[in-house]
Write a structure and sequence with these properties.
The complex is a heterodimer of chains A (226) and B (502). By secondary structure, chain A is an alpha/beta fold. Chain A has eight helices and eight strands, in the order E-E-E-H-E-H-H-H-H-E-H-E-H-E-E-H. Classes of the chains: A alpha/beta (226), B mainly alpha (502). The interface between A and B is medium-sized, with 30 and 21 residues.
Chain lengths: 226, 502
């Protein structure tokens, strides 16, 4: 696998056992992901996609824009604040506190522009507990995009929105990140936006192919019970 | 197989059993305490006094309204300043609540009742505004630290996990935990302000210029109409709190009370130095180390004050716990929509509001006037006040129950439909209240009931500060142990650990 790659290796797992505490979720993970790859993670829920994504995040925390499946939004704060949180690590505490109390012009403009692309411009100063599930999911995605990191790691980032929006959002993610690894459950979307597909089944990597070599019927088999 | 030859034995596995057992255990222990409890009535004609008191409650009057207003303003000034300072201190402590040392420190400062803190600060700073403000602020900070700290710990961690790696601790806290807890914190803080007004009123009984000061005078002179006017004014301030306490007005209120009653004190440096370097050193150690003398001092103090004080405090608190439970179970139907009519519910609310707003200390003081010094006034006072608080919560909780259309009515409804359903909540509230009962019980000693507070008060009056310190320490340790015991019990019974508005 890695022999074909010319770009620098970003993530490398070698026969890794990954899990929480003493409970292993993934075994025998042999995996390399290079800069520039667009990887789709497929598999049933419980197959280990989230675990694998978390492991990848922990390998390069500073390069990763992180979009978790449970959105982790703060319900009583506005869309602006929740997106702003993507850059809490880059400012001093007092600058952050100031923006919490009264958004400053620069972050407000930046985030308004981003919200525009996400279709959230009207909701910029609405608290997220008053948004629909799809809008919340887009806010969570906005927070990850605002991080502006080279590697996007997303756990079902578009599962709560309709097909048209999913298309647009994935375009946005692809355009703004050099490398991405996203868990998806829509095989067609995976083949359209990714150049590599990793299938997980029963805690193991069951499939790892270029997207161009994938047979959709074979991918569906990942969702059959082992 | 067995069923053919042996009758099936029903499995005893009832959720009610564990709760009944716990309740029965408390009742049993309280009954065992009875022989040690002095519940005698020593006044000559308690009924006549009660009639006079009742007449006073019906005919409130106050000769000098300006004095009344001034006392109310002072009461609010101590309460607002004390609670505000306590909330800020508690918030700072709550930031470090993960550390065991911070938790223990908070438990220690809240284990000592505000009246004891007041006795202490009055020694150091005289009858000054600062003494009153600090007396409220310090124990309240301990309570705020606990409630805020537990709120922060229980926040859904997913928001924090989604933050970019490398986010500063304070930034993360202000953007995730704080916004998620803020509404709860505001509700709780407002509730504590209500408690603070009561505490502030009671500080008057030991000399600070609040409502309690005038209440004590009026009650001692038997001027019950005047006392009633003061009491109603206090209740009115507390009951209308939700109306006048607005977030936007808070800065204005704080500024006003700071101008009205600047928290200053004339510290006498030499006196304070003497207090810490000499007065609180155990007497036998003042001329150098004297192990044998210290041992004799401790032994004498143990047998003459600590042991009887501890015993009486425990006995009284247990009796008050049972009394509180009884008052709750008897009075909550009075405000529940499952029983009675609008008229009876209005009456029930009125009674519960009066009892909730009346500080235990005031009720016990009145009880002493009626029945003379024994544990009886204290038991009744603690049971009425705490029972009313829990009955209010349980009554509201019972309104959320959905009974089927053909459910029985009357006593059968109470016993079969309602009591089993509310009992777990009732137990949780009552056990939570036990910690508060213990604090209050120790404190009521100041009225002459020989609990720990009685000996603490005597030690302060006799300027034996070394004894006072040791007794305060014992009281604090007792309260901290009860705190832990109640927490363990709640956990074992799977009761919620944090009734929000107690």
């Amino acid at each position: 696998m890695s022999g074909a790659m010319t770009s620098p290796v970003l993530f490398h797992l070698d026969e890794a056992v990954i899990g929480y505490g003493s409970r292993a979720v993934l075994r025998g993970c042999q995996l390399s992901i290079a800069t520039g790859e667009k990887v789709a993670l497929l598999g049933e829920s419980g197959a280990g996609k989230t675990t694998l994504l978390r492991q990848l995040r922990s390998l390069r925390p500073a390069d990763v824009a992180w979009c978790p499946q449970n959105t982790g939004l703060v319900p009583m704060l506005s869309v602006f604040h929740n997106i702003y949180m993507g850059r809490l690590d880059r400012h001093s505490f007092f600058y952050n506190l100031l923006n919490l109390v009264h958004p400053l012009a620069q972050p407000r403009d930046e985030i308004a522009a981003l919200a525009q692309q996400l279709g959230l411009q009207e909701k910029l100063f609405t608290s997220v507990d008053k948004l629909s599930g799809g809008q919340q999911s887009r806010t969570s995605l906005g927070r990850a995009l605002y991080q502006q990191r080279p590697v996007f790691l997303g756990d079902e980032p578009v599962s709560a929105v309709d097909e048209v929006q999913a298309d647009q959002l994935l375009q946005l993610i692809c355009a703004r990140h050099e490398t991405m690894v996203i868990a998806l459950h829509d095989v067609a979307l995976a083949l359209r936006y990714c150049n590599r597909v990793i299938g997980l089944q029963g805690g193991r990597i069951a499939l790892d192919q270029p997207a161009s070599a994938c047979d959709p019927a074979e991918l569906l088999r990942l969702y059959a019970h082992a | 197989m067995q069923s053919s030859s042996f009758p099936l034995i029903p499995v005893r596995d009832s959720s009610a059993t564990a709760m009944v057992r716990t309740s029965a255990l408390f009742v049993l222990v309280a009954l065992l305490c009875l022989p040690w409890a002095d519940l005698s009535i020593s006044t000559r004609d308690p009924w006549q006094e009660l009639a006079r008191l009742g007449w006073g409650l019906l005919t409130p009057s106050f000769d000098n309204p300006l004095t009344l207003l001034e006392a109310l303003a002072n009461t609010l000034a101590f309460a607002l300043q004390g609670v505000a300072l306590g909330a800020v201190g508690g918030f700072l402590l709550a930031l470090g609540y993960r550390r065991a040392a911070v938790r223990r420190f908070a438990a220690f400062i809240r284990a000592i009742h505000e009246l004891f803190w007041a006795l202490l600060f009055i020694q150091l700073a005289g009858l000054s505004p600062a003494a009153g403000v600090l007396a409220i602020a310090i124990p309240y900070a301990g309570t705020f630290a606990k409630i805020y700290g537990e709120l922060f710990e229980e926040v859904d961690p997913s928001a924090r996990q989604a933050l970019p790696v490398g986010t500063g601790a304070l930034s993360a806290f202000f953007f995730t935990e704080l916004p998620q807890c803020f509404a709860h914190m505001v509700t709780y803080t407002r509730y504590r302000l209500e408690c603070g007004i009561r505490s502030s009123a009671v500080l008057g009984f030991i000399g600070l210029p609040t409502v309690g000061f005038h209440l004590e005078t009026a009650l001692k002179q038997g001027q019950y109409s005047e006392a009633a006017a003061l009491f109603y004014a206090l209740v009115l301030v507390i009951v209308t709190l939700h109306g006048w306490m607005r977030a936007k007005l808070l800065p204005l209120y704080l500024l006003a009370v700071l101008v009205w009653l600047p928290p200053v004190a004339q510290f006498n440096g030499a006196l304070v130095w003497r207090f810490f370097s000499e007065d609180i050193v155990p007497a036998p150690l003042r001329q150098g180390w004297n192990g044998e003398g210290l041992w004799r001092w401790l032994h004498a103090l143990w047998s003459s004050q600590i042991a009887p004080g501890l015993g009486n405090t425990l006995v009284l608190a247990l009796l008050a716990l049972i009394g509180t439970g009884l008052v709750t179970l008897l009075t909550f139907p009075a405000i529940s929509h499952l029983f009675g009519r609008p008229v009876t519910r209005a009456g029930g609310h009125f009674f519960l509001v009066l009892m909730r707003s009346a500080p235990e200390y005031l009720l016990a003081f009145v009880g002493l006037l009626l029945w003379g010094p024994s544990m009886l006034p204290a038991v009744v006072a603690l049971s009425l006040h705490n029972g009313a608080i829990i009955a209010h919560l349980v009554g509201h909780y019972s309104d959320s129950l959905q009974l089927r259309d053909d459910a029985v009515t009357g006593l059968n409804r109470y016993l079969f439909e309602v009591l089993p359903r509310i009992y777990r909540t009732f137990l949780a509230f009552t056990l939570y209240r036990f910690e508060i009962l213990m604090r209050e019980t120790a404190m009521l000693g100041i009225l002459g009931i020989p609990t720990l507070g009685f000996f603490i008060d005597s030690a302060f009056t006799e300027f034996r500060f070394d004894r006072a310190m040791l007794l305060l320490l014992v009281t604090a340790l007792l309260n901290m142990s009860v705190d832990m015991l109640a927490r363990t019990l709640r956990r074992r019974l799977h009761l919620s650990s944090q009734p929000e508005s107690l």
